[in-house]
Specification:
Blueprint lengths: L13 H23 L3 H22 L1 H24 L4 H13 L6
Length: about 110
């Protein structure tokens, strides 16, 4: 088994390296959260897309299929809401987070 090569050389302090790693991971995760963040305007747009898609699919494929499209997003919202309650998030904040999760993907459309 070989020795780990530290950027600082063979006399590097493992605690300093661990702190640098944790700091870099925090910065990386923060940047990723900023990139994938959804806002309420995007979620409203996503809900609108789902409603329009459900109506269009309902007109062309039948009302049952349109209801399945709308129902699948309703189930996604309810599952996200249950997860929020299980995580201990309550009230309007739980509803907002579940809504953003279920419909916030419209940022990328």
């Amino acid at each position: 088994m070989g020795m780990a090569q530290w950027p600082e050389g063979p006399t590097a302090d493992p605690e300093t390296a661990r702190e640098r790693y944790v700091s870099d991971m925090r910065a990386s995760r923060k940047a990723l959260r900023e990139v994938i963040r959804a806002d309420l305007q995007a979620a409203h747009f996503g809900l609108g897309i789902v409603v329009v898609a459900s109506v269009v699919v309902g007109l062309f494929a039948g009302p049952v299929v349109g209801a399945l499209v709308a129902g699948s997003f309703a189930v996604l919202f309810l599952v996200a809401l249950v997860v929020m309650f299980l995580r201990g998030i309550r009230g309007r904040d739980a509803g907002r987070r579940a809504y953003l999760f279920a419909f916030g993907w419209a940022n990328w459309v």
